[in-house]
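A note from the maintainers: we've had questions about how concatenated examples are separated. There is no special marker in the raw files; a new sequence line simply starts the next protein. For clarity in this README we add a label.
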Amino acid sequence: MYRDFYHLKDEPFNITPDPRFLYLTPQHQEALDEIYSHSQGMPRLVNAISDKALLAGYVHRAGLIDRRIVQLALGDLKEAC
């Protein structure tokens, strides 16, 4: 329906995200770099850090999960160990 009406080449809505439309701001890239540097890409650690970062972002009412929020999450994880 949308494709024909707006003359789109691709479907505008899908069940899964399309990485072609991902835009990383410098702040997003710094946060991802921080997560990777501490997790070394290990899925369990990526998940734990990301989960804590989302919670820290919510608690601090952050509009963006940036390096500062990730560092707060890392501090929480280190205290828990």
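[label: protein 2]
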Amino acid sequence: MRIRLAAEASTDSLRDYLQRCGCVVQRVDERTLEASAPPQSLNAKLGRTELAAYIRVWRAMHHPEAEVEIRSPPDAPGAELPLPFSPR
């Protein structure tokens, strides 16, 4: 799943948090991350839901003002979650 943040300052914070949660994360550019749920997730759809929950927790704990947009290909498993994603 591709995660785009409005502020560059939040990108490293979210990347570090998701990695601590066991997610696989790569920084694409200064405001974009490519992330997937921890490898032990049951399936892709549940993994996407799990990743969205981690983002909600990160926002609540560290950056409630952060604007986050989740971008995925329309045929991706679990892509039916609303986009852009506002985890509030």
